[in-house]
Design goal:
The protein has 233 residues and is an alpha+beta fold. The chain folds into two domains: 65 residues, Antifreeze-like/N-acetylneuraminic acid synthase C-terminal domain (Type Iii Antifreeze Protein Isoform Hplc 12), CATH 3.90.1210.10; 120 residues, no CATH class. The protein contains three helices and eleven strands; from the N terminus they run αβββββαββββαββ. The radius of gyration is 32 Å and the shape is rod-shaped. The termini are far apart. The model has no long low-confidence stretch (mean pLDDT 82).
Length: 233
């Protein structure tokens, strides 16, 4: 082996040693990162904005992997936790799902049944009525005789709201033009109150909701169930 060949062998050996050193350095860096980051776990991210009080489903979220040590204790790692749940606040696209972002959907109690009616958004909801709210349901009735006064009636007091739907454009009465935005509101009521609400929706000129302050009982006195302008003079 001549001197040129010896130099070639030495350079080749040095190249191999440098490559091994570089590989070892990469392994050290990876090991250091792994020791700092730790194991990864599954979490879930919001695919697109979700309105508050919406019913939550698994299809609204996408699976991601996140280092366990970076994940909060309230992070949701199993979408089974969404069963019968609704969003407590607006959920923004890209947010990691947390257990404090949702609550149980209001459920029917013994003797109750659901009834849903459309309420004019501009006069009856105003964005303040949410599942769990209590409202008074009022109907206004036009008199059938010219000599009789028009009447406002508290149809149901302290009605419990269990769901608020999305704004829906609906046609006005046939003698009017255009559409109005209404919201389907679902109540949990006993049989008698369900009949009262159904009657008001069918025969009242307007059905409106009055929000009851949380923790209070707004059941009107017998004299306050009915109102006429003449009786207020």
């Amino acid at each position: 082996m001549n001197s040129r060949q010896r130099r070639g062998v030495i350079l080749l050996v040095l190249s191999v040693l440098c490559a091994l050193a570089a590989f070892g350095g990469v392994l050290v860096v990876i090991g250091d990162v792994n020791s700092k980051v730790g194991a990864e776990v599954v979490a879930y991210r919001v695919k697109s904005d979700i309105a508050p009080y919406s019913t939550l489903t698994a299809g609204q979220f996408e699976q991601v992997t996140v280092p366990k040590r970076w994940l909060s204790d309230t992070a949701v790692t199993d979408l089974g936790a969404l069963r019968d749940k609704m969003a407590l606040t607006a959920l923004k696209k890209g947010s990691l799902l947390q257990s404090d972002m949702f609550v149980d959907r209001p459920k029917l109690q013994a003797g109750e049944q659901e009834i849903a009616i459309m309420i004019d958004a501009s006069t009856g909801v105003a964005g303040k009525i949410t599942p769990g709210s209590k409202v008074n349901i009022l109907g206004t009735f036009k008199s059938k005789k010219p000599t009789d006064p028009d009447l406002s009636v508290v149809m149901v007091a302290n009605a419990r709201v269990i769901n608020v739907g999305k704004l829906t454009p609906i046609d006005k009465d046939s003698d009017k033009k255009g559409t109005v935005e209404s919201v389907p509101i679902t109540f949990a009521l006993n049989t008698k109150d369900t009949q009262r609400v159904a009657y008001a929706e069918s025969f009242a000129e307007h059905v409106r909701l009055a929000l009851v302050a949380p923790g209070t009982d707004s059941t009107p006195s017998p004299n306050d169930h009915f109102y006429t302008l003449e009786g207020d003079r």
